[in-house]
Design goal:
Shape of chain B: globular
Order of helices and strands of chain B: HEEEHHHHH
CATH architecture of the largest domain in chain A: 3-Layer(aba) Sandwich
Radius of gyration of chain B: 14 Å
Number of domains of chain A: 2
Mean pLDDT of chain B: 83
Number of strands of chain B: 3
Number of helices of chain A: 14
Structural class of chain B: alpha+beta
Number of helices of chain B: 6
Oligomer: heterodimer
Strand order of the largest sheet of chain A: 1-8-7-6-4-2-3
Strand content of chain B: 15-25%
Low-confidence stretches of chain B: 121-127
Structural class of chain A: alpha/beta
Distance between the termini of chain A: 40 Å
Strand content of chain A: 5-15%
Largest interface: A-B, 39 and 35 residues
Amino acid sequence: MLSGYFDHAAAAPLLPEAREAMQPFLGEDFGNPASLHRFGVRPRAAVDDARAQVAALINSRPDDIVFTASASESNNLAIKGFAQSRSDKGRHIVASAIEHVSVLEPLKSLGVRGFDVTLVPVDPDGVVHPDKLAAAIKTDTVLVSVMHANYEVGTIQNIKELAALARRYRVPFHSDGTAAVGRIPVDVTDLGVDAYSFPAMSVYGPKGAAALYLKRGTRIQPLIEGGFQEKNRRAGTEDIAAIAGFGAAAAVTRAKLPEWSAAMTGLSQRIFAELPKKLEHVTFTGPVPSGVRPEAMKEPAAARAKRLPGHVSVVVEFVEGEAMLLFLDDEGIAAASGSSCSAKTLKASHVLLAMGLPHTKAQSSLVLTMGKDTTDADVTLFLDKLPPIAARLREISPLYAKFKKGEDPYAMKPGETCEDEHE
Amino acid sequence: MYSEKVMEHFRNPRNVGEIDNPDGVGEVGNPVCGDMMTFYVKIDNGILTDVKFKTFGCGAAIAVSSMVSEMAKGKTVEEAMKISNADVAKELGGLPPNKLHCSNLGADALHKAIENYLAKKPGEEKKGCRCPYCDAPVEGSKICAPCQTQGRR
């Protein structure tokens, strides 16, 4: 079973309802929805049904949903599509500093092609403040992109307020909803966004399907051209099985979300309350429930900052993240980290750095993302296993040794300045 | 991702700890860059009679430290100075390409501890900027040219 699985941000298990909905399209219903003959009928109906189910989940019109293959593609389509279709109006784009790489990298490549990009800073809780966003918007800004929730520190942004602000400046607003959908209720009409990305995986659907919501009347340049699919916004024969699975998963999630969210909130609260009692020198990152943050730490910068249900991110001082992950895996616990060693790029998490965390602390981060199947027993397992693992690694750690001797474990040697090399 | 041998050394690292009144101490890397290793050596009649270490770092960094300490123990100073990062990686049954800099750190921390002994001035810090991965003196750039060109970041 799923015991000990705390990495739902990386992958979530497929709902049985989704698997069942996919089956026919991996078998006899192989037809192309574009075909006029009888083989096209059921695939066409499946895509239409899924579109309605996915639209219902976020309260949009079915016609406003564009199916893509991943949230990364949805983000790319939104960023590059808006930039290109509006380049006659300006060449400036605004995004938050803690966006996913599938937003940041397209912005970088647009930068090479003559666009100007402003990244809005966040506060120590990872919150984008409206005044900071307003300060970043210029007369030639053609798009604002701020993620709904952050996958690494669990911060939920006040998208309704930020989108309203962008609207006052007549700038379209895109939000990456990957971490939010399936964890909190999402209503794109109420939020007032022009575009919204999320993958099927966020609702326990299959990999290979995702959506980009585009408000009616929004024009964007497609990434993939050559066919009329998705109303000319994304060419290519649809992945019917993945889309059908997405639709079924969206329908189940829509019905179950309140129950799942409440359960996940309770489980994460337990970790916030109990971990500091079992393990010294831990600091939660992102917004935390009141009373959790040690007195030594500053109070949450924004009292209204909210956190995703079932999301815990914590710095375990003097211990490197990847080493913790390997030992946790030995104990049957799957988690993630923002340390540079655990990343393929060998760079520390840009999210933690943007929140003002020093590199030294970012190396020691641990991220737990729960799901609908996470149990109290999983949390107990984690709470029992992490402290001895941290103790074992601290025993090896020269930083902990220095700390115990009363020295500054993070002091740099004379002349040592490698920090800016990693920016 | 890691070989069985790397995981075995990571799970059961040899020679962890500090030596009281060591003959040499070598510290390389720093927590800002991701890894930090401190090696301690005891040297009698030109032979490394004891080698201990403490490491802050990933699975590879801990396994590399353990392997280096094992390879160096009982060797002469000359032999120990010849242990290269390639030797360490080979003994561990290989390392993922993006983790090769960890093996570089292990051998260098050992060499630095021995140099510290040879200089007969334990505890003295070298001045100037140094590459975080191989500790070579650098000017201008933060990472030395070989580490940059070999993609050791």
